[in-house]
User: Fold this.
Amino acid sequence: MPQLTQQFSQTSLAGSPAGAGSYYGSQGSLAAPQSLHQHVNLLSGPQTIDFEASTSVIEKTLPSSRSASQSPTSNCAPVWKRSTINSVPTTQQVLNKSRIPFGLLVKPYRQLLPGEEEVPVINAPQVVRCRRCRTYINPWVTFIEQGHRWKCNLCFLTNDVPSFFDWNPDTRQNVDRMQRPELTHAVVEFVAPQEYMVRPPQPVVMLFLIDVSFNAIQSGMVAAASKAILSSLQSIPNTEDRTKIAIITFDSNLQFYNLSSVLNEPQMLVMSDHADPFLPQPYDLLVSLTESMSQVQSLLGKLPEMFKHNTDPGHCLGTGLTAARKLISPIGGKIIVLSNSLPNTGEGSLKMREDVSLLGTNKETTLLHPQTAFYKNLAVTCSPSQVSVDMFLFSNDYADIATLNGCAKFTAGATYYYKAFNAKRPEDSVKFTTELSHFLGRALGLEAVLRIRASRGVKMTAFHGNFFLRSTDLLSLPNVSTDNAYAVECQLTETIVSPLVCFQTAVLHTSSNGERRIRVLTLALNVTTSIADVFTSADQVAIASLLAKKGVDRTLTSKIEDARDAIQHKLIDILGAYKQSMTSSGQAGQLLTPANLRLLPLLCLGLLKMNAFRDTATIPSDLRSYWMALLYVFPADMIAMAIHPQFYALHTVLDADAQPPMAKDALGRLPMPKQLNLSSERLDRQGVFLLDNGVELFLWVGSAVPPATVHALFDRPSVDQVQVGKASLSPTSAQTPPLGRVVRDLIAQIRADRMRQMTLWPHLYIVREDGDPSLKTWFLSHLVEDRYEKMPSYPQFLNQIREGLAKYSSG
Amino acid sequence: MNGEGLLFLFGVVASAVLLFAMVFFIIMFSDLECDYINPIDLCNKLNQFVFPEMAGHAFLTLLLLLNGSWWAFLLNAPLLAYHIQKVAKQRHMYDATEIFRTAPENKRECFMKLAFYLLSFFYYLYRMIVALLADD
Assistant:
């Protein structure tokens, strides 16, 4: 403790901007990880970049041994569901006093990473639920009356335990109920019986709406897309041959294709009525994938050739979507839009409204709002018929993501953006084909609804993510994507009297194999009366993620300036509240946070500096809208990466003293190198660095990198010959030196992981220290701790915060 | 019965109709909160009454102006301006994707309009009686 006070007394000096130089210099090595219940003075130097430490807080505040089965998997892992605070105060007053936003981030349906345990599937005679609040039985219920009844952990009603919990009628033997997966696992999937269906489970339906206008042909998109779809036809989920497929192409007219299995060749039917789009024939446009496989293959094979000389610049996306919806709305399913330019014919035409003179001004927000309600209204009509829209947008100049994303946003889809796509460039076509193939092949949930139930006294006030809100707490998801995450804001409406607060998320969906299933995730949180526990159990990544999503929402309903202000104010509020209730007046000159929130200011600064929110005139509105769309669906770990990119030194990964040593583990995975602080002071002229912002990868090459390293990585004799910009490293060969091999493996591993997390294949950009200045500036914009354009450096930002805290007095 | 009497008789009837429309809106919003109706149906239903309500009110205000009933006109002018402002900003229609966020606000607005129409109902009734008495 004496050391600690000494540290505090030193640090009030380091506050001035002039001291910024010594900020990194004096504290060369990163500070040791801090334990809980200890203040951290942020002005004392850079903090260790270690987000994972905070996720173990939940186990500390609420050991799984407190659950009914005491199983270690009783509580939800943060990848599934995480709360901004892991100890919930008993009253809203305490919550208000802490100023920490209370919310959850949920990703109920995701692709598992290598080594992860499968979600247990329960096929019981009966789905056991509370009679009153309809909560599913979970590890956090309590058994009473000698185990004959169970008490619901959400509404506290007692229910009967069904007999099959203790007795297996097939084997006529007693069974241990504490072995049942619904009592040992926080994430389970029930096979739903008949009463959970309003109609027989729908098959997988995919409708491709492909732009074949002049631009799309020129960029090579049509050829690349046809090839990718053709090669993924076999991997589209197709249990029992139920999957149906349709293809519609459009320029200034719509072209339907009769894919009937009795025809030798698919027939084209042209429809040019934009006022009242109709289907040219009622059957054979949507066909069984298995039966019409050869017709579909033949059509996709010929498509690029058929439109090769198409010079029609028309683009009737609105009409196309209306017709596509008509075609599949009796069943529901997915509309996959591949579009290369701005719609200009028929309903839903969009104006080219990008105006660089508006960027960075207070009029900028108008470019981030949709220019027409057409696409949103269309989405609203799609939602009840279980139709989801996914947008693949390619564009040379303006794609108007702000408007078109409305389609995906309210139908639980996603928007994929390929700026300046050119199929001739191998990187572009690899990215697109990899993503599209993965997209088509991944598991999906259909006709789903998501509901979150919470313990008595907790109320859900707002939801964020891609869905349509069908009632106060019911999210309608025509398709459940494995990528999308949802955020919920909560409030306490009455005093919590129970020792636990539980949240249960249930997703009722039809899996791609045609089974009706309910995925249930239960998160239990500790309840506390002390504000100190609220602070020390807070999850900085979850808070930053929630702030990011609220920021996007604020931008779309109000203005981007308001969103920025709200983020900064919230940060000052939280730290001010901490100062008021947890510190003494002797510490007034310092900037104190609990150890678990020490990276929150850095995350907030990253958020303010990232493409979605940065106050600058250099970010095109499409890019902003794209990033906002991403932030709105990203899970917490991806948001952390987007606002605080991961930064590694690659030239030292093979050094003898490197931590961790680069050796593959049992699953064949490499450990990630140690993360560096995002500051240009970490850059080294002789080094090679990798920066990963979740969506792009940057390889920074110093001007004095030894030739051996250059050879290992780029197969070139010297740095000057390294190609800059979007690039790929040559494939590993027998001659590749070990460093080159490790780096290639690392990049491949990051990409493979990213595909599982988000269906995103990051481009690799090579940035040379003495290369293209605009590329360098772009790279430097990710170094959050540095000054960039109008935005302050991290030490300057901390000073602003400290000044902002002057109005809060210590307790 | 003189012109003024007839005008206020119309005013009484019109404000009663508008009053009922507001009651209907409020009931619908309460239904939404209780999950008796889904937001798409709600918006489709309410949106068809938005323009008739505004038009009815605007027509009544215009008649009051033409008749030179300044006090009654001034009473109605702020609401008319509010309606015009809403249409100009394209915010007059209910949006199914935003409805849960805006429902409390919409409901409050409906309550205030309800109170206003109730007040005008009695005011017009009073003016009608005054006009009829003056006629005698």
In short: The interface with chain A takes residues 32-33, 35, 38-40, 95-98, 100-101 of chain B (CB under 8 Å). Residues 3-135 of chain B form one domain. The mean pLDDT of chain B is 92.
